[in-house]
Amino acid sequence: MNGITMGLNVDPLILSALREDITSEDVSTNAVMPDYVKGTVDLIAKEDGVIAGLDVYARVFYLLDPETVCAFAIKDGDEVKKGQTIGHVDGDIRVLLSGERTALNYLQRMSGIATYTRSFARLLEGSGVKLLDTRKTTPNNRIFEKYAVKVGGGTNHRYNLTDGVMLKDNHIAAAGGITQAVTMARDYAPFVRKIEVEVEDLDMVKEAADAGADIIMLDNMDHETMKKAVAIIDGRAEIEISGNVTRENAASLVDLGVDYISSGALTHSAPILDLSMKHLRRL
After folding, report:
1. Which member of 55, 76, 196, 198 is catalytic?
2. Which of 46, 136, 150, 194 is catalytic?
3. Is 90 a catalytic residue?
4. Residue 200 is a catalytic residue
5. Does 227 participate in catalysis according to the annotation?
6. Which of 104, 111, 129, 251 could disulfide-pair with 273, CB 3.0 to 4.6 Å?
7. Active-site residue among 55, 76, 145, 219?
8. What is the pTM of this model?
9. What are phi and psi of 242, to 5 degrees?
10. Is 214 a catalytic residue?
11. Contact present, 270 and 118 (Cβ < 8 Å)
12. By the 8 A CB rule, do 70 and 57 touch?
């Protein structure tokens, strides 16, 4: 994440997280460290994985005290091993203690998503299929979670409702049908926006393709039905597979010849990567 992104988009979210954790004061820290003392603490990996979110981790401490210095031996996207020292944080010990949990929460969550995504993406290597995330993210943490997906080797789907047109079952019902929904979206949306339609059976596939959808999402279909759907579309639209796609079943989908596989599991089911701040000492 660059400095502009941090300042405009990320800082308010991090500050909100810090306010959640420090209502008025850090009672434990103030009890044992009433005055300024400079110190350092190590950041250590407690399991193997992919690191994502080092800039966010560092920003937590910076917002508490701009004099805090974080130094890392690796960069986002690098793989770490259990027991590896990732870096260290130098500064006011009170800041190191008060910012620890919030900083680790971001880094562990983002690194967990990057780790899960990396293992998922490797299953699709060489297939030409792009792995996409979804909007199934933690409220107010989407910018962090989608960044972590990219670090792990995935591709971001639309960031929010403003980014693109996706006509799902309820949009189609509201419009009165797929053809009507696509026509209305084509008339309303800027011409640079692709129109994606979610379909659940072969009749819907045919209607979406005939209506001129740019992308057709095959939602919760079995393997044989998806093969028939790909044949019906016959190159007239890009094809995305979605619905209960996980790391465990993704490899079985690559033979279908689709363009994208999207999975909410990248962000809603990835476990955290266990990291720790240890060996705090005075300087």
Report:
1. 198
2. 136
3. no
4. no
5. no
6. 111
7. 219
8. 0.95
9. -150, 165
10. no
11. no
12. yes
